[in-house]
Write a structure and sequence with these properties.
Shape: globular
Organism: Desulfosporosinus metallidurans
Pfam families: Spore_GerAC, Spore_GerAC_N
Distance between the termini: 97 Å
GO cellular component, one term: membrane
Radius of gyration: 27 Å
Family: Belongs to the GerABKC lipoprotein family.
Number of helices: 13
Number of strands: 14
Largest sheet: 10 strands, mixed
Structural class: alpha/beta
Domain Spore germination protein N-terminal: 25-201
Order of helices and strands: HEEEEHHEEHHEHHHEEEHEEEHHHHE
Length: 386
């Protein structure tokens, strides 16, 4: 019996290596081009222009036929065209000799022309392919997306790394948005009437072609219809409860030519809907807590009377920012980027079913009230100006 067991154990030990396959399907990075940024533009003859920023490895060299250094030694810029995005991707191998590797891709940048035609078709590959990361940032630029890949990095070795850090820290100013591929697909999957993406440009005030996050881009369904400046963008973020921090600048009491900086510490918002006498009404309530960060005037703003003036001025500024995006959404774009339809569906589902087919016509007619509650919790270490 013991001898039989030993024979069985021996066969098991000898058979184990047959089931250990090892890395039979491994993909050596030496044969891959590591993509850090992707740009999509409208090419000639209705084709897709596909451009990538590729991290330069120790054994990679700039291609003289279809590639360039992009002005920085750490990356290479290459482009190709095709009838579809995937066709253009594979056509790039004819120039690079390497298959593209996407898990390290930071962002997908969409050119103005391709964004106006509709972004769903060109994002389909990135949403469908398992190698693409759903948390990749998606941005829009007013010009050619390929131009953004040529931007010079200031503090990082790659502009892709710098862009990633800029978007992760967008809440420091709350004057742009940070939208991932997953965010967009969630919005559009639920038949959202619109979306808001970050707007990226080359800084016009810097001749070295550095990156600048400048407001946001507005989409009606998946088509670009306009843009928001930084203040309108923060108004949008107030309405969505996405303001993390930032600086509110208000005039000094009795000295309007001088300014005060209030730092936003925390904020929240609530949207309420109502139907009265057949009229749609929405109320946006924002509660904000801030601190006095800087004053360029002499009055002692720490006394209760002056603090009340500061709170009133702060409320007026925030209300104005929110009103700017409400008016633009209702009067210029006729697109519910504020999420009023979602709130109406939540509170009045039966009424929503009756009007959702005509929501594009009903939304601009809705009455919108804005309520801002302000609280100043700190005036800093200096109790009185010097």
């Amino acid at each position: 019996m013991q001898k039989r067991k030993r024979v069985i154990y021996l066969f098991l030990i000898l058979g184990i290596p047959l089931f250990i396959t090892g890395c039979w399907d491994r993909k050596e990075l030496e044969g891959r081009a590591i993509v850090t940024l992707v740009a999509l533009d409208k090419g000639e003859n209705n084709e897709i222009k596909f451009s990538v920023q590729i991290a330069r490895t120790s054994d990679s060299q700039a291609s003289s036929n279809g590639g360039s250094s992009g002005g920085e030694r750490s990356s290479v810029i290459m482009s190709s065209t095709g009838g579809t995005v995937f066709d253009a991707v594979r056509n790039l191998i004819l120039k690079s000799g390497r298959k593209l590797y996407y898990p390290h891709n930071t962002a997908i940048i969409l050119g103005n022309e391709i964004a106006r035609e509709g972004i769903l078709p060109v994002l389909d590959l990135f949403n469908r392919d398992a190698e693409m990361r759903p948390l990749t940032w998606v941005l829009v630029t007013p010009g050619e997306a390929a131009d953004i890949l040529e931007a010079k990095s200031t503090l990082e070795s790659l502009s892709a790394k710098q862009l990633d850090m800029m978007l992760k820290d967008f809440g420091a100013s709350s004057k742009t948005v940070a939208t991932t591929l997953l965010d967009i697909m969630k919005q559009l999957a639920y038949d959202s009437p619109g979306a808001v993406l970050s707007n990226i440009e080359l800084d016009p005030n810097n001749p070295k072609k550095t990156l600048l996050l400048n407001g946001a881009a507005v989409f009606k369904r998946d088509k670009l219809i306009g843009r928001l400046n930084p203040i309108e963008t923060r108004g949008y973020l107030w309405s969505q409860g996405k303001v993390k921090s930032g600086i509110i600048t208000i005039p000094c009491p009795d000295e309007e030519n001088k300014k005060i900086s209030m730092e936003i510490k925390r904020a929240d918002r609530k949207i309420e809907s109502d139907i009265s006498d057949g009229k749609l009404k929405f109320t946006i309530t924002v509660n904000v807590e801030s601190r006095l960060a800087e004053q360029a005037c002499l009055p002692d703003l720490g006394n209760p009377e002056k603090l009340m003036e500061l709170k009133k001025s702060q409320c007026e500024v925030i209300e104005k920012e929110i009103r700017s995006i409400v008016d633009k959404a209702q009067e210029k774009y006729d697109t519910d980027i504020l999420g009023f339809g979602t709130e109406l569906n939540r509170k009045f589902p039966q009424e929503w079913q009756k009007i959702k087919g005509n929501w594009a016509e009903e939304f601009p007619k809705a009455e919108v009230n804005i309520v801002v509650n302000s609280k100043i919790t700190d005036i800093g270490l200096v109790k009185k100006p010097l």
